TrEMBL record:
Domain BioF2-like acetyltransferase: 173-307
Molecular function, one GO term: aminoacyltransferase activity
Organism this protein belongs to: Massilia yuzhufengensis
Record-linked NCBIfam families: pepcterm_femAB
A single GO BP: cell wall organization
Similarity annotation: Belongs to the FemABX family.
Superkingdom field: Bacteria
Pfam families: Acetyltransf_6
Keyword annotations from UniProtKB, A to Z: Acyltransferase, Cell shape, Cell wall biogenesis/degradation, Peptidoglycan synthesis, Transferase
UniProt xrefs under PROSITE patterns: FEMABX
Record-given protein name: FemAB-related protein, PEP-CTERM system-associated
Amino acid sequence: MNSIIEAAHARRAAPVIAAAPRTLHLLQPHERARWDGFVRACPDATFFHLSGWQQVLEQSFGIRTWFYYVQQDGVILGVLPLAQIKSRLFGHSLGAMPFCVYGGVAAIDAAARAMLDSAAHELAQELGAGHLEYRGMRRAHPDDPAWHTKELYVTFRKAISGDDEENLNAIPRKQRAMVRKGIKLGLQGRVEDNVERMFAAYAHSVHRLGTPVFPKKYFALLQQTFGDECEVRVIETADGRLVAAVLSFYWRDEVVPYYGGGTDLAREVAGNDFMYWNLMQAAAARGCRLFDFGRSKLGTGAYDFKKNWGFTAEPLPYEYKLYGATSLPDNNPLNPKYQLFIKLWKKLPLPLANALGPHIVKNLG
């Protein structure tokens, strides 16, 4: 009995060590590994929360970024990467993140999440931004009337197995026939350590759509920054002619084909269908079990293409908080006011479009 009483007295006498307060910080270069360690472990985080995006955006486009994190006792509890787009033509925004399909706060602690939201709010006001934008796969502020959503984008994500035949049979019949056509014609995929041919195929495709091209430097920086998690895959004929190419991200057990395009030859040989099949094969062999076809706008050809592959659209309820702006942004090719620009852009010679495109696209995000 005496020993029990003595133990109780000892517990009462022990000093209570209060937890340190949560504190807000901006990412410093020497902290990138710690930041990425948190991102890789946080269930809410995505590939687009990785610290490498800071260098990519700043060095490719000269965009200002703020990578906030909250920590307690030296342990990171949440992160929020933000970047500013400031354009006379397309407006002034602070977003998480431009050029990324997913973003917003990634946190394991509600208090940390609130601190990061507050930091974004204060920064948007300080910068005089028209709006703040979060690109999450789900609404982060469903009960807050200050945040608005817009039904424009959907994402397409589907489980895949380690068995090629099973994955092929899961593709609807008409698209499966296109894949088999590419196989029969002897198309082949190869991974390249540079972006030269990938850029050629991509630039050709976006010009055909009337869309400004990203600078080649941007793709090279993605490959350089993310290493093995960024793959450039080129599709060619048996005699080496370029058909199509795709730049993909590998994240956990997912593959995310992100930028791609095809030459005129791709239409003749079902090059785009074969390209995504070839990527799916390689990703499955690498251990990926989810194929993320990325976002598309409702009512577009890309939307129909992915749906025809047997993928189900999932809403992407991007959230917006208005400051200087009086309405939600509408900077997308479906906006009628951009139709004349698109028609004129298609008529530009490809070399001129490639030279001018980077100066415009950096303001689109």
